[in-house]
Design goal:
With about 90 residues, the chain is α+β, with helices and mostly antiparallel strands. It is about 40% helix and about 15% strand. The relative contact order is 0.25.
């Protein structure tokens, strides 16, 4: 089953909450790792993943003090890495 936007939102929220509980000062997450945690990636078929949705959620959940550490030219690949500052 291909993950949807809310699957990515729930997992990223969980990771951020856990980082806060651990008293971290930031959380670096890549779209490839997030998608693997949610499921459906890597896949043998292009239509069995939702990388654009994953990247969109990561950008949507960014706050002004968070930082994009890396992204591809397209902006919608496994190479997106965002540093989310803690606490949120």
């Amino acid at each position: 089953m291909v993950p949807n936007t809310s699957d990515f939102e729930l997992k990223l929220s969980e990771l951020l909450r856990n980082a806060e509980l651990q008293k971290w000062i930031f959380l670096d997450i890549s779209s490839g790792n997030l998608h693997q945690l949610v499921g459906g990636y890597p896949s043998t078929k292009d239509e069995d993943h939702a990388m654009p949705s994953c990247c969109n959620v990561m950008h949507k959940m960014q706050k002004s003090n968070d930082e994009v550490l890396h992204q591809s030219h397209s902006g919608w690949s496994t190479k997106l890495v965002i540093r989310y500052k803690i606490p949120r």
